[in-house]
Amino acid sequence: MRNRGLQPICPIESRFHPSEQIPLRTLQFKRGLLHELRKGNATKEQIRLHNLVQQLPRAIIIGVRKGGTRALLEMLNLHPAVVKASQEIHFFDNDKNYARGIDWYRGKMPFSLPHQITIEKSPAYFITEEVPERIFKMNSSIKLLIIVREPTTRAVSDYTQVLEGKERKNKTYHKFENLAIDANTCEVNTKYKAVRTSIYTKHLERWLKYFPVEQFHIVDGDRLITDPLPELQLVERFLNLPSRISQYNLYFNATRGFYCLRFNIVFNKCLAGSKGRIHPEVDPSVVTKLQKFFHPFNQKFYQITGRTFNWP
Ligand code: A3P
Q1: Spatial distance between the Cα atoms of 45 and 151, rounded to a whole number of angstroms
Q2: Which of 101, 120, 143, 181 has the most CB atoms lying inside 10 A of its own CB?
């Protein structure tokens, strides 16, 4: 017998008032918006409809060059409350850009929703004399991220990038050993930029004249390569963001030999091939010399930052 009189306890149709139902198109549009913001894009229509704004960064990845700055920025951008500035802006380290003023800088920022935070990265900031004071003048309570790798490895990575640039232009270049070691004294050549950049404590000490140490967060760039999630969770906490980046968002790509990013079921990406170059072999005695040279500076860096690494 058909029971015509009985109604379902909770008829599906009555769960939403018709006017409360969100059309599928809108949902797709919203997903599209987040996706476009994460890619650093937004259409004029999206800007108008969602009151999107260009906000000054509330956190900056100030360095260190070849520490994994791009990977860190892209991985943080997985967080729904983070919007990245795709390009390195070089506002604070480049006098010509700095003279263009803060509105020029803001104009270089991506569109975002008001509750989101914008992050930019320009690794040259860490080593450029004038930058700490300039950033302080913009926002004295800004959060500063520094990603570091074992200093000798970082120096070789730095060299490899320059070498590749020279080779692309069919130019010859010195061997790493000849740049890193002074032929006259047989000591480490502190005039070589790749060596100087790896003396992290020297640069950090300049920053500490303006910002308290609590405003910095040190990211382990070596661990970001092998096991990125715990490093990203530490950054989420530092930025006072709810923990949203999960293992789902990061998958190891055996062909690339690195973790790649999964935004959703359809959108994933690995970093460009210029990230993760094969380093040249370096004479082991030079490696040891460099490691010994960096050792006392590393100790000081651990002491100041409160973060210790297993560097030699
Ligand atoms: P190598 O090219 O020496 O391997 P930066 O973005 O600051 O220039 O740093 C580049 C480094 O990021 C690369 O150095 C690479 O090792 C590291 N890196 C960290 N995570 C990565 C990832 N998921 N994909 C590619 N490179 C990554």
Answers
A1: 47
A2: 120
Q: pLDDT tens digit string along 12-28?
A: 333 333 333 434 444 34
> Probe ligand 1: pick from 62, 70, 268, max atoms within 8 Å of CB?
70
Atom of ligand 1 nearest to the CA of 153: 3
- 19 occurs within a structural domain: no
Flag whether 189 is in a domain: yes
23 located within any domain: no
Catalytic residues: 66
**89 in Cβ contact with 108 (< 8 Å):** yes
**Ligand 1, from 60, 66, 148: best to mutate by most atoms within 8 Å of Cβ?**
66
149 lines ligand 1 (CB under 6 A): no
Q: Does the C-beta of 71 come closer than 6 Å to ligand 1?
A: yes
Q: What percent of the chain shows pLDDT beyond 70?
A: 89
Tens digits of per-residue pLDDT, 188-238?
999 999 999 999 999 999 999 999 999 999 999 999 999 999 999 999 999
Least confident of 34-38, 56-60, 100-104, 121-125: 34-38
Q: Give yes or no for residue 223 CB within 6 A of ligand 1.
A: no
Domain of 301 in residue numbering reads as 39-305
Dist CA 120 CA 110 (whole Å): 10
Any ligand 1 atom below 6 A from CB of 65: yes
Is the distance from the beta carbon of residue 153 to the nearest atom of ligand 1 less than 6 Å? no
DSSP-derived 3-state class of residue 118: strand
Q: Using CB atoms within 10 Å of the CB of residue 231, give its burial: 0 to 12 exposed, 13 to 18 middle, 19+ buried.
A: buried
- The Å distance, Cα 66 to ligand 1 centre, comes to 7
205 within domain boundaries: yes
Length of the chain: 312
Domain count, the chain: 1
For residue 237, what pLDDT is reported?
98
* CATH value at residue 213: 3.40.50.300
